[in-house]
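User: Second chain of the day. Same drill as before.
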Amino acid sequence: MLRIITDFDGPIIDVSERYYRVYLICLDRIQNPGQKVIKLNKAEFWQLKRSRVSEIQIGVISGLDALQAQNFSHMRGKLVHTQPYFHYDCLASGALDTLLKIKQVGIDLVVMTMRRVRELNYAFDQYNLGQFFRKDCCYCLSNDHVKVGDIKDKTLLMSQALKELPPACNTWMIGDTEADIVAAQTFGIKVIAVESGIRDNNQLQKEAPDSIVKDFNSALKLILEQSPL
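Assistant: Same format as last time:
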């Protein structure tokens, strides 16, 4: 059996608009009356995020002083993963067609994400994605989970999944961050990083995945080339 374990945000969902809108909201709330700030355009902001520039530094680049930048970073962390902003997400380009192909060819598909249950269910309902994932193949954080860190949390999810899922003769991981790569490497799983998410090529190369490709569809093509059904 061929199995693909995929991250959700990045390969399947484009979160860039949500992140950018929260950036603008936090900048507006933190700036003082009459204070001049520099509102980055979306492309500028997203490139900073993808190259792992810190939230504090993004605040400084946007014209905030040091204390304001710290407050900006704190506010952004509190808001960006909350319900009022998830409607800004959209399907990543080509993701739906890729999911349909995976279903058609009969690959065992598992989703593994740092989203909480309610956040994953919201996206499933919004885009009718539940049809592609059995409930026993969805690994995410509980609604009351206290996050330790993406790498540790994702590695724990991977450990849980490998204990619970039936054996597969060939397993691949698709993700867009260092957490996905490290979680897969920890358990000897081949991992493909996609550039459609929140890390650019330079950042992904640092973690030495087996391959780096453009997007979810490109990852599937590579898997089928190397692991024909």
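The longest strand covers residues 108-116.

User: Great, on to the next one.
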